[in-house]
Amino acid sequence: MRPKVMEEVEALRGVNSVKIKEAHEAGKKVVGMYCVFSPSEIALAADAISVTLCGTTQEPIEEAEKHLPRNLCPLIKSSYGFAITDKCPYFYFSDVLLAETTCDGKKKMYELMGKIKPMHIMNLPQTAEGEEALEMWKKEMIKFKNFLEEQFHVEITDEKLREAIKLMNRERDAMKRLHKLNAHKPAPLTGMDMMLAQWLKGFNVDKEAGIELIERLIEEVEERIKEGKFAFDESAPRILLTGCPVGSGSEKVIKILEEAGASVVALENCTGYKGLDVMVDEDKDPITALAEKYLQTPCSCMTPNNKRLDLIKRLAEEYSVDGVVDLTWQACHTYNIESYFVKNFVKDELNLPFLQIETDYSDSDIGQIKVRVEAFLETINPTVTA
Amino acid sequence: MISIGIDVGSVAAKIAAFDGEKIIATAILPTGWSPREVGEQLLKDILEKNQIPRDKVKSIVGTGYGRVSLPFIDKKITEITCHGRGAFFINPEIRTVIDIGGQDSKVIKLDDTGMVVDFLMNDKCAAGTGRFLQVMANALQVDISELSELAEKAEPVNISSMCTVFAESEVVSLIAEGSSKEKIAAGLLQSVCNKTYSLVSKMDVEDKVFFSGGVSRSKVLKEMLEEKLGVDIISTEESQFLGAIGAAILGF
Q1: Cβ within 8 Å, pair B104-A368
Q2: Alpha-carbon span B187 to B191, nearest angstrom
Q3: Which residues of A touch B116 (CB under 8 A)?
Q4: 3-class DSSP state of A125
Q5: From start to end of B75-161, where are the E strands?
Q6: pLDDT one-digit tens code per residue, B133-192
Q7: Are A64 and A88 in contact (CB under 8 A)?
Q8: In this complex, which of A353, A368, A386 lies closest to B124 when CB atoms are compared?
Q9: Neighbours of A192 (CB within 10 A)
Q10: What is the DSSP string of A43-66?
């Protein structure tokens, strides 16, 4: 049985789309964002709402393919499809969009999307290493701050930035504690619920209410651990999922894994733990602190990206995982190429079984993925899928 | 006691009976439109023909893509684990299995106890599978079982499209240009060989290598693979039954 608070979390789907409308009508400014590199703090310091925009379902992809090549990552196509079909309430109510030059596909798609709404593009360095990269990224933070000040006719003071940093750190801390509950063996939450809790929180209009909800979920789950109520039993193979982002609508691999008897305990991806690991330094100059934090995100768009391997190692140990699954979206070159390093690292350094699944949002390959996943789990525990 | 393994593939359904020491019987039928019916038919036939009373059957294990539609099985195990186990039973020195079936091709690596340690599967595409050859055999108006014989002494033409749909147009053009059936057949097998090679080469191939699945009945393809991979490949009469044999053994 699921924790009761998960029902409230699920209800956010409906609640949030109403709240965003109300907030818009009350004159609140909304900044729509796509990526874990986006500094929500700057938007919050401008007294605006920062929300994640839709891009995790198959449905709008057909429309998107009228403008975009078919052979493009589903996340980019879905994001763009939602934008042009106006089916994402958060996009609809966004006053401005924040984009970032993470990968070639996104950056060129943003040129098209920027025709629909005012958009600011943060120019992300190609590497996280070296002083120049940090200096450049700091300047990008300032440019974004200036953009919002001009757009919204507000002044973003250091004090407001500090407040926003503290708020976002509290949210990160709550999410982090929620994730860490699944280090318990057996895991108290399914990987599906963990993913949903974080994904739905992304659309949350009221940060404080979101934190409060997550705190209550943690409390309930802690209680369930004491009572011995878990999502899976002790024998379920414990899987760490790494790779591309996953949200509601693109959860098929998590679903297949868990239906085949695995317990997805750790989500290393950027819709999971990746962005929560490092806090923003509350004592430093806020812009420097923000630049430092966001630049440390171990994303495959960076070269080199060795910190991702460090994080996988740390999580694999902390969550006592039995295997690693690398989910890569079709045509996501950076994650698909990096999968080779990840495979060697997981097999040779961590001595764990590894499976890469390259797919898209469609259901067309579910049968094939099932065979791979079940066979993979059979190599970990021969009795699991029986 | 007897254990039964049923492997319902996309094209053919196979069954094997195991008595704890040896495989006592096998049978095969086209899968047709109902995996369930063909599974039931195979089970009925094998028990009747070999006079095995139902209560002597200690377990029935299902595998293959149709494993989910067999209501009478005790257990389902993926064809990857079953092929590995089956190959290991036939020859315990096998460390790599190349399996090419109707809709999938796979490379499976085994440890010295017959356990699967790693595997790779083709993506959702018919390139390099039995389906590819089936479509091409139709275009050549020959039976798929004749392809290998046709190709035997011929110099392969180059068929560059991996995609089944494009390759079919390519074959049609080749026929129109007057290429012989023999050369085209050899070209098609070469194409499957190349596609398989690209899958296999992502893994270290460890001796000994076993070739299984329906497509393994092609002698020419086996030789092409041996040349390309630089290793000897074992393939036996039982190759097509490997999944069913492995399932029966795992169920015992």
Answers
A1: yes
A2: 6
A3: 375, 378-379
A4: coil
A5: 75-76, 96-100, 105-110, 116-121
A6: 999 999 999 999 899 999 998 999 998 887 888 889 999 999 999 999 999 999 999 999
A7: no
A8: A368
A9: 20
A10: HHHTT-EEEEPP---STTHHHHTT
Chain A residue with CA closest to B109: the answer is A379
Strand partners, B8: B13
Domain annotation covers residue B152: no
Q: How many other C-beta atoms lie within 10 A of the C-beta of residue B198?
A: 13
- Name the amino acid, one letter, at A256: I
**Residue A227 corresponds to which amino acid?**
E
Cβ within 8 Å, pair A385-B78 = yes
Tell me which residue of B182, B190, B125, B131 sits closest to B160, measured CA to CA. Answer: B190
Collapsed DSSP state (helix, strand, coil) of residue B62 = strand
Chain B interface residues facing chain A, Cβ-Cβ under 8 Å?
65, 75-81, 104, 115-119, 121, 123-124
* CA atoms of A99 and A121, how far apart (whole Å): 5
Q: Which residue range(s) make up the domain with B52?
A: 2-124+196-251
Mean pLDDT, residues A187-214 taken together:
94
Cα–Cα distance for residue pair A312/A101, rounded to 1 Å: 24
Range A160-380 has CATH code 3.40.50.300: no
Q: Which two tokens stand for residue A137?
A: 């990224």
**What pTM value is reported for the model?**
0.92
Distance CA A15, CA B70 (A): 44
Are the CB atoms for A144 and A122 separated by under 8 Å? Answer: yes
Residue B74's φ and ψ, nearest 5 degrees, are -90, -25
Question: Which residues does B176 contact at the CB level (< 8 Å), separation at least 6?
Answer: none
Nearest-CA neighbor of A188 among A174, A177, A173, A202?
Answer: A177
- CATH number for the domain including B53? 3.30.420.40
ipTM of the complex: 0.86
* Closest residue to A378, CB basis, from B78, B118, B123: B78
Separation CA B13–CA B15 (nearest Å): 7
- Check pLDDT > 70 for residue A383: no
Instruction: Please give the backbone phi and psi of residue B186, each rounded to the nearest 5 degrees, phi first.
Output: -65, -40
Amino acid present at A107: K
B4: part of which helix (H) or strand (E)?
strand B2-8
- CA neighbours closer than 13 Å in the CB half-sphere of residue B122: 26
Tokens representing residue A276 in the block: 């929560």
Domain for residue B16, yes or no? yes
**A373: closest CA of chain B, how far (Å):** 9
Distance of alpha carbon A359 from alpha carbon A326, whole angstroms: 11
Task: Tell me if domain A5-154 and domain A160-380 are identical in fold.
Answer: yes
In CATH terms, is domain A5-154 a member of 3.40.50.920? Answer: no
